[in-house]
Amino acid sequence: MTTIDFSPLFRSMIGFDRMAPSLENAFRNEAGGYPPYNVEVEDENKYRITMAVAGFAEGDLGLETKENLLTVTGSRKQDDDEDARRYLYRGIATRSFERRFQLADYVKVVDARLENGLLHIDLVREVPEAMKPRKIEIRGDNGHYIEGTSAQAETRAAA
């Protein structure tokens, strides 16, 4: 496998030092697998992960978030009755699984529910007010604001 050199990007990007390992991990991990899932974008700051977990009860599933990593696990207990069964064909997989999702900063899980064999996990990005973009006015040498920018005119009109 080839390795991608991200050093040219880091010359002009600051604070993205976790991006390179994340992209390399995405290259290594194959898409698909078990259980199948969808990732939906509901709007700019709302997402939903839907996983097909047929055969799993609520108590068989686990969700955990730690350091921007969402881990979904499923472990089904073997019934004594199931050991006695003989199958001609067994197409419904109920094996244990662990699926991991890397979450962006400020994305958190707000709801998880199991409906009709589908696990729905709702996520929301909540950027703190201090992290949102803001306009900064520029002062001249004499301490007065420099005229001519529409952002400054809007700021003064609002005040």
From TrEMBL:
<dbReference type="Pfam" id="PF00011">
    <property type="entry name" value="HSP20"/>
</dbReference>
<protein>
    <submittedName>
        <fullName>Heat-shock protein</fullName>
    </submittedName>
</protein>
<feature type="domain" description="SHSP">
    <location>
        <begin position="28"/>
        <end position="141"/>
    </location>
</feature>
<comment type="similarity">
    <text>Belongs to the small heat shock protein (HSP20) family.</text>
</comment>
<dbReference type="InterPro" id="IPR008978">
    <property type="entry name" value="HSP20-like_chaperone"/>
</dbReference>
<dbReference type="InterPro" id="IPR002068">
    <property type="entry name" value="A-crystallin/Hsp20_dom"/>
</dbReference>
<keyword id="KW-0346">Stress response</keyword>
<dbReference type="InterPro" id="IPR037913">
    <property type="entry name" value="ACD_IbpA/B"/>
</dbReference>
